[in-house]
């Protein structure tokens, strides 16, 4: 295996390959004179507290839930007596 080291200067390599990063003033990113303003906070949705009702269970299945708790309480009472 033979390793060849290039002794060409970088400008010679650029001329040979034809690629170079533009470095003129029109290609540079301009500096900001001031920082941009921060984004505005989104307004929160207003909910009327009088209309807010928390339902932990579906209204349709309320009888099923009541019967479940009733049977489990009955089992606890029987096991304690």
In terms of quaternary structure, the protein is: single chain
The whole-number mean of residue pLDDT values reads: 73
Query: In terms of structural class, how would the helical and strand content be classed?
Result: mainly alpha
Reading the helices and strands in chain order gives HH
What percentage of amino acids are in beta strands? Answer: under 5%
Main beta sheet: strand number and arrangement?
A: none
Radius of gyration: 38 Å
Shape: elongated
Distance between the termini: 92 Å
Kindly state the number of beta strands: 0
Binned, the helix content reads 25-40%
Helical segment count: 2
Low-pLDDT residue intervals, each spanning 5 or more residues? none
What does this molecule look like?
By secondary structure, this protein is mainly alpha-helical. The radius of gyration is 38 Å and the shape is elongated.
Supply database-style keywords.
81 residues; mainly alpha; 33% helix; elongated; protein kinase inhibitor activity; protein kinase inhibitor; SMR
